[in-house]
Design brief:
Length: 261
């Protein structure tokens, strides 16, 4: 089973892209220096394929009931839950990597997005709201660049959280008044859609992407980030899909910062 992707693209004057997002890290946890919002941007023609690939992995892990398998990276890493406690730590690490490596066989217009916010750099701001504003702008730019002669539209899909009302209001404000950079996000339709992660394999993939970026910035662990580093939206040598928001390190050499130097 293959993704439809680019083979149908020429026949679409309007293509819908869905940006699935989840967060990693805790706003309130003072032992964590970063909060990450991240995920995957998928054209409507590839959603079934991505879900199918992840479902195959779930069935391999638990053939009797694949629906009982929810890919939640921090739970897998910690061996929490009846299913994950059966695996050794190296096996659990490999499962996280296999979820991320599903992106390897996807078409090039399936791209990752993430924003890592250094919480202490913005003590008066909500890091989730900062990250959402940043990613909304980047997603809108992606839609404009990807569209060329077409008029592609986008919808943001997030895991259910306590931020549902505030993020919906912020998204509406961006469309009506523009963001802080003066951009109007006309390519993004509606306010964000919030769904239960148990019902969406692609939200579970978004969770893993956010977790891999969180581990890279919060713990200097690149084992998972390396699986997806080449999948962030990028053009002309600049990585647009990954943002590192911080005010403490001018000479940062992470991929997001160094591509803009």
């Amino acid at each position: 089973m293959k993704p439809l992707g680019n083979c149908l693209r020429a026949s679409f004057f309007i293509l819908m892209y869905l940006l699935y997002l989840d967060d990693s890290g805790s706003v309130a946890n003072k032992n964590e220096t970063y909060l990450v919002l991240g995920g995957v941007c998928v054209p409507e023609t590839s959603t079934r394929w991505l879900s199918y690939e992840l479902e195959k992995l779930a069935h391999e892990i638990n053939p009797e009931n694949s629906a009982a398998v929810e890919f939640h990276a921090s739970e897998i890493f910690g061996g929490r839950g009846r299913i994950w406690s059966k695996f050794t730590k190296p096996e659990r690490i490999e499962i996280i990597r296999r979820v991320l490596l599903v992106l390897d066989n996807a078409y090039s217009n399936v791209v990752a997005f993430a924003c890592a916010v250094h919480k202490n750099s913005y003590p008066s701001d909500d890091p989730v709201m900062l990250a959402f504003e940043d990613l909304s702008s980047r997603f809108n730019m992606f839609l404009r660049n990807e569209a060329s002669d077409y008029n592609h539209k986008g919808l943001i899909v997030l895991d259910k959280s306590s931020y549902e009302t505030s993020l919906q209001n912020l998204s509406f404000q961006f469309r009506e008044q523009g963001d802080r950079w003066g951009s109007y996000q006309r390519n993004i339709i509606e306010t964000p859609l919030f769904i239960d992660s148990r019902a969406s394999r692609i939200i579970q993939l978004a969770d893993h992407i956010a977790y891999s970026v969180f581990r890279r910035y919060n713990a200097s662990d690149i084992n998972y980030f390396n699986c997806i580093e080449g999948r962030f939206d990028q053009r002309d040598g600049i990585i647009h899909g990954l943002a590192h928001k911080q005010l403490y390190k001018r000479d940062c050499t992470c991929p997001a910062c160094i591509s803009r130097h």
